Amino acid sequence: MSLPAAPADFPAAFAAAWMARDAAALAALFAEDADFVNVVGLWWHDRAAIERAHAYGLENFFARSTLRPGAVRVRPLGGDWAVVQCRFHLGSQTTPEGRMAEPRRTVMTFVLERRGAGWQAVSAQNTDVVPGAETNLAEGRLRPVDYR
After folding, report:
1. Residue of 24, 21, 23 lying closest to 67 (CA atoms)
2. Cα dihedral sign for 66, 72, 74, 80?
3. Residue 109 DSSP one-character state
């Protein structure tokens, strides 16, 4: 798998690897020493860990999932660097009981570096979009809240 030719192409390449259930191809989009923080704060510190974590998810609770990129924003940082943010729609995640969960929306942020003719992530963070909430509150259990 070749790296995306432009930063704006990165989210589609990520989604394509996800939809192919190809954790190795997904991980190949990341530098060897990349970091990835998922929606619950799990933090993977290299490509091998990113691959293992995604292989597990794509074989289990994301085995029938769909991932579709939406709006993409690219912020060039000059030279060989860019930040890419993308809204994603995730559907058909399986619950622990084996049912289909409701769809989720996330925003992923990728820090990219130009590597030869393509762009590779050195860092990524995935954040769930929680409609009607503006922050989380910890009171025995973390829950989304809105103070407005």
Report:
1. 21
2. positive
3. E
Q: Which residues pair with 67 in a beta bridge?
A: 90
The domains found in the chain, sorted by start residue, are 7-127 (3.10.450.50)
Q: What is the pTM of this model?
A: 0.95
User: Tokens representing 93?
Assistant: 């995640």
d(CA 111, CA 36): 10
Residue 40, Cα to own-chain centre: how many angstroms?
Answer: 12
In sequence order, what are the residues at sequence separation of 6 or more whose Cβ sits closer than 8 angstroms to the Cβ of residue 76? 7, 82
Q: Which of 102, 15, 11, 105 is nearest to 67 (CA)?
A: 15
Contact 65, 93 (CB under 8 A): yes
CA–CA dist 5, 19 (Å, integer): 20
Per-residue pLDDT tens digits for 23-57: 999 999 999 999 999 999 999 999 999 999 999 99
The arithmetic mean of pLDDT across residues 85-97, rounded, is: 97
pLDDT band at 1 (very low <50, low <70, confident <90, very high): low
Question: How many angstroms separate the CA atoms of 50 and 44, rounded?
Answer: 6
Give the pLDDT score at 11: 98
